[in-house]
Design brief:
alpha/beta; Rossmann fold; 2 domains; eight-stranded mixed beta sheet; six-stranded parallel beta sheet; 24% strand; elongated; binds flavin mononucleotide
């Protein structure tokens, strides 16, 4: 699911003749599944590497080709002008060294080149090529030229390349392309210039080398907040416990395992953060003594584990809170939600607390939808707010409140 403001958008995908062109079938399919309208323009070289029929079938529209630039088939509708006016965002993926050169030179001899030149919407280029081609100063200069004109050129990933080389040149994953496109489409940048620290996921408290105590938190809520803050312009650090989620693009990920590691990371990242959102489900207890060897199944039918309390990270951050810093905590509760949330707000010196009823299967842990009540510190003088919906709606609602109180 896309973020709230990224629905109903029109995406123009330019495909140039890189070997990664075959991956655009998956990209188009992902956008169509998310409800976008997608038009595709293939260069002649691209049309040899991925079938226009595949892309037109997936996009449910014709796939445009270079031969359409000067075709009289379209009557008075000039394809490059019509397409450039239609698009909310123009994505070139994969972008060959040649397509990068053509775009930087303002070459309008192809349908893609002419459309790029005419288009006023945000433009994103995803170069993908042999690592020597990418490292070549000519390519770098073309990328820089486009960036200086306000376009975005996303560095390729590193790894094994189709040409047999190893290095920078891979097309980023479909998810990363979706992420970067959302960033370009985001209409607000109210967190620009702000550093936002977000914690997410569960912690694992190991009792022996192969077993741990944890909880069912997936990290989805914290990851959605980190993504949304980044889309809205923040520099984001995401301190995450073990989560099976792809780290959002453009976010600095600090991976931790235990509550102690999370505390250490938070204390080192929190000074200098303007906003801190503690959405992680941190374990309250750890084993007093972690067994060095795997605990064996013994003759006795019971086993007693002695636990000791972990430090309260939100409280530790609250005690050190600097003037102007906003600290938001989560309260996952199964009973007396309001009372417990208000107690947490006060005891931990929070500015707001997001109270989450995790007693049912529909909301809270491991669920895609959520219903939360947000209580603000009395000094902020605002009544509680309820937000229900998917995690994007909750993430954006929480950031709206923070944005309001920091104005
Ligand atoms: C099999 C094959 C794969 C290619 N892959 C790439 C590539 O990944 N990146 C790139 O910049 N050029 C690649 N090229 C070279 C381009 O296809 C060539 O420069 C072409 O002129 C690009 O045209 P276009 O930019 O109009 O699509 C490849 C060529 C071949 C034959």
């Amino acid at each position: 699911m896309p973020p709230l403001w990224a629905t109903d958008k029109k995406i123009l995908l330019g495909v140039s003749g890189g070997i990664a062109a075959y991956k655009t079938a998956e990209l188009v399919r992902a956008w169509i599944k998310q409800g976008y309208q997608v038009e595709t323009i293939l260069t002649d070289a691209a049309a040899r590497l991925v079938s226009p029929l595949t892309l037109s079938t997936l996009a449910k529209r014709r796939a445009w080709r270079d031969c359409d630039l000067l075709s009289d088939e379209h009557g008075w509708k000039i394809p490059h002008i019509t397409l450039s006016e239609w698009a909310d965002v123009l994505v070139v993926a994969p972008c060959t060294a040649n397509a990068l050169r053509a775009a930087a030179a303002g070459d309008s001899s192809t349908l893609l080149g002419a459309t790029l030149l005419a288009c006023k919407s945000p433009q994103l280029f995803f170069p993908a090529m042999n690592s020597n081609m990418w490292a070549n100063p000519a390519t770098k200069a073309n990328a820089r030229t486009l960036e200086e004109r306000g376009h975005r050129v996303i560095d390729p990933d590193s790894g094994p390349l189709a040409c047999g080389y190893e290095g920078a040149g891979r097309l980023p994953s479909t998810e990363a392309i979706l992420d970067e496109t959302w960033f370009s489409l985001c209409p607000i940048r109210d967190f620009a210039g702000k550093k936002v620290l977000v914690t997410a996921g569960p912690t694992h408290e190991y009792i022996d080398p192969v077993r741990f105590i944890s909880n069912p938190s997936t990290g989805k809520m914290g990851y959605a907040i980190a993504s949304e803050a980044r889309y809205r312009g923040a520099e984001v650090v995401l301190v995450s416990g073990p989560a099976a989620l792809r780290p959002p693009s453009g976010v600095r990920l600090v991976s931790v395992t235990s509550a102690e590691e999370m505390k250490e990371a938070c204390l080192s990242e929190s000074p200098g953060s303007d906003v801190i959102v503690m959405a992680a489900a941190v374990g309250d207890y750890r084993a007093r003594a972690r067994s060095v060897q795997k605990i064996k199944r013994a003759a006795s039918r019971s086993l007693t584990l002695e636990l000791e309390q972990n430090d309260d990270i939100a409280r530790a951050i609250g005690e050190r809170k600097a003037g102007g810093q906003i600290l938001a905590g989560f309260a996952a509760e199964t009973e007396n939600i309001r009372e417990n949330a208000l107690r947490k707000l006060d005891a931990k010196n929070l500015d707001l607390v997001v109270a989450n009823d995790v007693s049912g299967a529909e909301t809270g842990f491991a669920s895609d939808s959520n219903s939360v009540e947000i209580y603000l510190a009395p000094a902020l003088g605002q009544p509680p707010k309820r937000i229900s919906g998917d995690k994007w709606e909750v993430a954006s609602g929480i950031l709206d409140i923070i944005s309001n109180v920091t104005e």
